[in-house]
Amino acid sequence: MAGFALKVKTKVGQQIIINDLTSENTIKDLKQLLSNISNIPVHNLHVLSGFPPKTLDLSDDNLTLNASGIISGETLILEEKSNRKVDGNVEVKCNSSSSTTTKTADTIRGRQFNNVHQVAQQQVSRGILMKHVVPPDNSCLFTSIYYVLNGKEDDTGTVAPWMRQLIAQTIEKDPDTFSDAILGKSTQEYCKWIQDDTSWGGAIELSILANYYGVEIAVADTINAIINRFGEDQNFSHRVFLLFDGIHYDPLYLEPLEAVGSTTTTIQTIFPSDDSSLLNEAETLVKEANSSRQFTDLNRFTLKCYQCDVLLNGQIQAQQHAQTTGHTKFGEI
């Protein structure tokens, strides 16, 4: 059974919680976990979910997550209570006068979310799109997706297997969408294949993970010099970027101009989906990579297995070799 996953956003960033909870844990367990990761006291926790964000009712400590309606994959926004509530409203003190302006909680939350959106847009216009190199271990797609969602690599080694299992479960539950013709093999064969840690993820996995996490995944394809956007038709509010060179995925991030070359800097990996400036920058990047042949021709490239020194021609031989030997370290020659 796959772990219960939550994406948690706070004012200092976001992270994905996997395997710390199950659907049978209680609201009390959830609040304690959220308090621990955010350093917000339990009694000051203000939790929102959905879009536009709305307050999540966490008043019944004994209610299980399953009974509460909180599902795996939910995105939770954590805030610390700082305003006094009066009959369901939030009092906001205006700096320009001594009068008190009262607005509904939903209005305030909507404005706060828009402010976050505006800050993201400002950051996008003042940085350089760069590549973060992840290990070539057959799970580079999953490692890259975790990176763009969290701003760091998974150091537990559990995320890639969990994502593979999630994909298998999604395919099994929807045979109409994921037919044998789409998969290129039977459902049973594909689900077994994708859970093998020597198998490489691709378009099917990208589509499933984009929908699961509720974020558009834009893949800069250096072979064809194009941007493939997964989840584009879902109108997700945010977008992340990956770079694909034919056999390997790496995550892309935005580094602020004033921090380029610095050893300590804050990067950005999640962006508003209605901002076209970064898409344009990604298109420029991928065209430059293509013109300088920074890609791997899947039909003609030769790989060397660094674990046994055998030479392999093309993607198919490399995948077959990995499946039969368990070797994962290859280099193009």
UniProtKB/TrEMBL annotation:
GO terms for biological process: endoplasmic reticulum unfolded protein response; ERAD pathway; protein deubiquitination. Residues 4-78 form the Ubiquitin-like domain. The keyword Chloroplast does not apply. GO terms for molecular function: cysteine-type deubiquitinase activity; zinc ion binding. InterPro entries: OTU1_Ubl (IPR048857), OTU_dom (IPR003323), Papain-like_cys_pep_sf (IPR038765), Ubiquitin-like_dom (IPR000626), Ubiquitin-like_domsf (IPR029071), Znf-C2H2_OTU1-like_C (IPR057766). Residues 129-255 form the OTU domain. It catalyses: Thiol-dependent hydrolysis of ester, thioester, amide, peptide and isopeptide bonds formed by the C-terminal Gly of ubiquitin (a 76-residue protein attached to proteins as an intracellular targeting signal). It is found in: Cytoplasm. Keywords: Cytoplasm, Hydrolase, Metal-binding, Protease, Thiol protease, Ubl conjugation pathway, Zinc, Zinc-finger. It is an enzyme of class 3 (hydrolase). CDD domains: OTU_OTU1, Ubl_OTU1. It comes from the Eukaryota. Its EC number is 3.4.19.12. One of its GO terms (cellular component) is nucleus. Hydrolase that can remove conjugated ubiquitin from proteins and may therefore play an important regulatory role at the level of protein turnover by preventing degradation. This is Ubiquitin thioesterase OTU. It comes from Popillia japonica (Japanese beetle).
